[in-house]
Amino acid sequence: VLKVLSHIDSILRSPRAPPLIYRRSKGPVQNYIKENGQECGFEHLPLTIEMWADQLMALKDLHRSLRKLSLELVPWHTADPQDNRESVRVEDLQFIIDAILEEIENKEKNSQTPSLPTLFAIVSHFQKLFDVNSLNGVYPRMNEVYTKLGEMTNAMRNLHELLELDSSAPPTLVVDTVGKLCDVINENVTEQVQQLLGTQDIHSIINKLEEHECFFPPFQALIQDLLCLLEISNVDDILPTVRNLK
């Protein structure tokens, strides 16, 4: 008996045993004496064995629960080499958990890849947005859109630099700035026209244009008659030809 108890004591004292399994005796009356005279406390041994038995039963219950969960998540993993064994090991539970975790990781990876209906919807939406009638025209239109987008991006970047705008300025601000610049240019052109015609009044400009319309047609007709009469083709030759006639 002492040998059996000593063997049990060595198991309870081993590093592999949980730290709460072994407890030293608290009194000399409750101690058993080994052959070497050292104390070994076994008053808690029945409770420890009962606890172990409960844990083994709970391990079986946990195994059944994990098997049900596995059948729901990974029903194709039906082969379990431990199904026919009476005892259940922690390794068996770990095998089921690893299979479930592997399946979850695979689903997460596959979820990042769009499905065929999703890809079809994306292509159809592109065809509607850019007026593409067939699938063969999708790639050319994509290239065209990419090229146009690059050109517009470069143009907007150059406009930002020329107008001294911040790169984050929206296109509406760029358009407004260009519009204001055009207004300024138009005002300058109007002033230059007024200075050229020698008037600051729009009505005077109209009168001068009307005078031009009245004078120019007869003058043009006279010049054409002189060219025909003198048998020349260049206006600059009219005066030399007339002098020669004198």
From TrEMBL:
Record localization: Cytoplasm, Cytoskeleton, Microtubule organizing center, Centrosome
GO BP: cilium assembly; regulation of microtubule cytoskeleton organization
Domain of life: Eukaryota
Keyword Disulfide bond belongs to the record: no
GO cellular component labels: centrosome
Keywords: Coiled coil, Cytoplasm, Cytoskeleton, TPR repeat
Location, primary (coarse class): cytoplasm
Listed InterPro entries: CEP70
GO molecular function: gamma-tubulin binding
Physiological role: Plays a role in the organization of both preexisting and nascent microtubules in interphase cells. During mitosis, required for the organization and orientation of the mitotic spindle.
Subunit comment: Directly interacts with tubulin-gamma; this interaction determines centrosomal localization.
Protein name, as recorded: Centrosomal protein of 70 kDa
Species, as recorded: Fregetta grallaria
Origin organism lineage: Eukaryota, Metazoa, Chordata, Craniata, Vertebrata
Name of the gene this protein is made from: Cep70_0
